[in-house]
Design a protein that fits this description.
The structure is a homodimer.
Chain A lengths: L16 E2 L2 H9 L4 E7 L2 E7 L2 E3 L2 E7 L3 H6 L3 E14 L7 E12 L1 E2 L3 H15 L12 H5 L1 E7 L2 E7 L17 E9 L3 E2 L11 H4 L3
Organism (chains A, B): Nonomuraea cypriaca
Protein name (chains A, B): Pyridoxamine 5'-phosphate oxidase family protein
InterPro entries (chains A, B): Pyridox_Oxase-rel, Split_barrel_FMN-bd
């Protein structure tokens, strides 16, 4: 079960809410980037960034010099992951909508200092974006690790919203001669594009070529 | 030219920054949803939502009951639109990255009260999500308009970041026998799915069928 704090309890569209922790994990595990919200000098700042999940901890990372990361350490943050699955075309303008799956996580982010946990977090971050690469590419050097900030955020306080399926129109609109339905949005991987300076003879690894 | 305030001036990765207002418009016009950041009870909140652009004004909307919209009226907000174009697979873990185009807009959002501007904003919002639908579907009723909050945000203070192309590896890593390149992420429209209760004889309109 997910939390039921004030900010994770839906005020509206309650039918779109899920309190199933498996749904939270599914939304997170199938995403590539999140939007991290922090308060910087009293103003909200929303930046796209990578993430990784280990159990019920979310890891974020970035340059130690990044404003957003510095502002997030020890502070209340909000992390949102959104999958847009389609546009819902209703008979009325008012009932137009989108099909989506989104997770919103609230909590206090904390810089990870334990070297082992930092590696666990970085591995999760790398594998989220590019499964198989952690064991394939060159490991981080001591200098590179020192330049990287890793933040941890508990998944304790989170809400999930999911909308699927056909439009919901007003009763009287169903008689209108207006097409209604869903235009699905499909996200897929294209053909891998080798670095132009890649030497001949280095084949594209299966974990990249066969990514689903 | 875009603004050069402190928060829109990149501290890092300056080569990814664009100060071209056309780039801002392009990132916004090709997007479907934004992530709206507001401060609610002292905490950041990031919600996915639709938007529309008219000139240098961004319009957001939502139910008059939505927490995020109520918090945004008259307040400093941050709106971020991100296109993820691919995963950049480098020879080292450290240099893994993503290809993306993102726009971050800062400013004070204000509820639009002028009836004519409200319609202009709603039209832009609808057409952003579903071009052609404003003139095709049933127009909003007076009651529906009353239930809809429209917010305006100036595009005055904005930053754009774009990363394209191959990985940038450390000089000494180019000799490694590691595949490197880009795995493109492709977003496309699927086949329109008619509402199961759609009467026979209502063809899918060209503006939906032929959407690019």
């Amino acid at each position: 079960m997910l939390s039921t704090t004030q900010r994770t309890t839906l005020g509206r569209e309650k039918d779109r809410g899920s309190t199933d922790r498996n749904d939270l994990h599914e939304v997170l595990d199938t995403g590539l980037i999140c939007h991290l919200g922090v308060i910087v000098n009293g103003h909200p700042m929303v930046v796209p960034t990578g993430y990784g999940r280990v159990g019920d901890t979310l890891y974020l990372h970035g340059s130690t010099g990044a404003r957003s990361l510095r502002a997030a350490d020890g502070a209340e943050v909000c992390v949102t992951v959104t999958h847009l699955d389609g546009v819902v075309l209703a008979r009325s303008i008012f009932n137009h909508s989108v099909n989506y799956r989104s997770a919103i996580i609230y909590g206090r982010a904390a810089l990870v200092t334990d070297p082992e946990e930092r590696l666990i977090g970085l591995r999760a971050l790398t594998e989220q974006l590019a499964p198989g690469q952690w064991d394939y590419a060159r490991q981080p050097s001591r200098k590179e690790l020192a330049a990287t900030a890793v933040l941890a955020l508990s998944l304790e306080e989170a809400s999930v919203k999911i909308r699927r399926g056909a439009p919901k129109d007003e009763e009287e609109d169903y008689a209108l001669p207006v097409w209604a339905g869903v235009l699905p949005l499909v996200t897929s991987w294209g053909e891998p594009e080798p670095d132009p300076v890649l030497p001949e003879g280095i084949d594209t690894p299966v974990h990249i070529l066969g990514r689903e």
